[in-house]
Structure to design on (109 residues):
């Protein structure tokens, strides 16, 4: 009789292998912070989510009414809609380690 050994996953992304991550990035126009936030988010997703993500960018200059649904108070703000629970990260997402912890892709120390 053979025994299978399962390795315990380290990160949140590995715990949810088939799940699609739905991310919503709230920005205000094409400012340097907004562009940096999108660029940083795209890099993080490509490196840690292996194509299992969808990014929706919402420009609050063009659609200010959309800020109410996710209770956006500052921009840029990233909202992780799925997998639940919903999480929010404010800023340009330049601190990769903090973003990974905030998205539950890496455990906090």
């Amino acid at each position: 009789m053979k025994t299978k050994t399962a390795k315990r996953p380290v990160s949140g992304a590995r715990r949810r292998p088939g799940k699609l991550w739905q991310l919503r990035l709230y920005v205000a126009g094409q400012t340097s912070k907004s562009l940096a936030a999108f660029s940083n988010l795209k890099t993080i997703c490509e490196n840690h989510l292996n194509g299992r993500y969808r990014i929706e960018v919402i420009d609050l200059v063009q659609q200010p009414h959309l800020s109410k649904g996710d209770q956006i108070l500052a921009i840029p703000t990233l909202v992780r809609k799925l997998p639940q629970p919903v999480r929010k990260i404010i800023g340009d997402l330049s601190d990769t380690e903090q973003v990974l912890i905030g998205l539950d892709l890496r455990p906090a120390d």
About this structure: Residues 58 and 107 are 28 Å apart (CA to CA).
